[in-house]
Amino acid sequence: MNLVETLNQQYMKPELPEMNVGDTVRVTVRVKEGNRERNQAFEGTIIAKKHGGINETITVRRISYNVGCEKVFPVHSPSIVSVETVRRGKVRRAKLYYLRDRVGKNAKVKERI
After folding, report:
1. Is 22 left (phi over 0), alpha (psi -120 to 50) or beta?
2. Is residue 91 part of a domain?
3. Cβ within 8 Å of residue 61, ≥6 positions away
4. Domains in the chain: how many in total?
5. Are 21 and 49 in contact (CB under 8 A)?
6. Which CATH number characterizes residue 36's domain?
């Protein structure tokens, strides 16, 4: 069991910002197109966090051109360049799936001061 834990610790990212459900984050991902690589940012609200350790994932939702878009990011993936917290959200739930049914100002999360 210690062997598995040491291997997991080896591949985990050491410095990650504090991310909670309801926070607005900007995730920068390394995208490969043909033989070129570039960094692409995806900014949205974290609606779910799953698992833990090396398998930890966050689900980020944003609305662009009146269409909701969700992406699941493995936090410790080598393709993720950086994760930065834009604003802190004040929520009382662990999963914010109810935001999928909301439109406009109702789909916003209050800011924690």
Report:
1. left
2. yes
3. 44, 45, 47, 68, 69, 70, 99, 100
4. 1
5. yes
6. 2.30.30.790
Question: Per the domain annotation, does 32 fall within a domain?
Answer: yes
In a domain, 113, yes or no: no
pLDDT in tens, 43-75: 999 999 999 889 999 999 999 998 999 999 999
pTM score of the predicted model:
0.90
3-state secondary structure of 105: helix
Sign of the alpha-carbon torsion through 41, 77, 24, 48: positive
**Is residue 81 in some structural domain?**
yes
Rounded Cα distance between 28 and 44, Å, is: 12
Domain range for 34 is 2-107
Half-sphere exposure of 8 (CA within 13 A, CB side): 10
For 84-101, what is each residue's pLDDT tens digit?
A: 999 999 999 999 999 999
| The residue to which tokens 């080598």 are assigned | 78
CA–CA separation, 28 vs 59, rounded Å?
14
Place of tokens 């985990």: 12
